[in-house]
Amino acid sequence: MRIYANVKSIGKRKPVLALQPFDIETVETLRELITQIVKQNVKSFNEEKPFTRYLLEEDIEVAHKQGKVGFHHQYNDTKQSESAAIDEALLAFKDGIYKVLHGDLELTALDEPLSINEEDIFTFIKLTMLSGRLW
C-alpha cells in the first residue's frame, strides 16, 4: 500500500516539503505506521553511498534562494541503529515533539485502531521548542 508523508516544521521560513511516498504493509495502529516509516528511513540513510556531487547552475540558484549552498556532505559515516531510531521516534511522539495528522484528523494515541486507505496523506509536524529566561 502506498501512502504519502508531508513534513512540516513550525517556525521555519522555508516552504513545505513535497509529499514523500512510502510503500508500507498493512498497519493497524500509529505505532506500527511510525515503526515502518522509521525503518525505511534508517535503511535509506545507512545504504547511502558517499560520492562527490557536482552542483548544476539551477541547483546553485535554488540553494542560493534558500540561503545555503552546499554539497550535503555527510561527515559521520556511522550506521544508525534501527531499534534505537524507532524507540526515539516513539518517545518523541509521546513527549509531544511532533504531531501526526491523518488528513485533517490529529492522531493522539499510538495504539488506537487506524484505518488507512491507498494514497492517504499523513502530515508530521515538528514543533519548535522555545527557550529563554524570565527576568
If you had to describe this structure to a student in words, what would you say it looks like?
By secondary structure, the protein is of the alpha+beta class. The chain is built from three helices and five strands. It has a five-stranded mixed β-sheet with strand order 2-1-5-3-4, covered by helices on one side. Strand 3 and strand 4 form a beta hairpin. Helix 1 packs across helix 3. It is globular.
What's the helical proportion of residues? 25-40%
Structural class: alpha+beta
Shape: globular
Number of strands: 5
H/E series: EEHHHEEE
Average the pLDDT over all residues and give the rounded result: 83
Strand order of the largest sheet: 2-1-5-3-4
Biggest sheet layout: 5 strands, mixed
Low-pLDDT windows of residues: none
Summarize the structure.
Helices cover 30% and strands 19% of the residues. The chain has 135 residues and is an alpha+beta fold.
Identify the notable features of this structure and list them briefly.
single chain; 135 residues; alpha+beta; five-stranded mixed sheet; 30% helix; 19% strand
Helices, strands, pairings?
Blueprint lengths: L1 E8 L10 E4 L6 H18 L9 H10 L15 H13 L3 E5 L2 E3 L13 E6 L9
Helix pairs in contact: 1-3
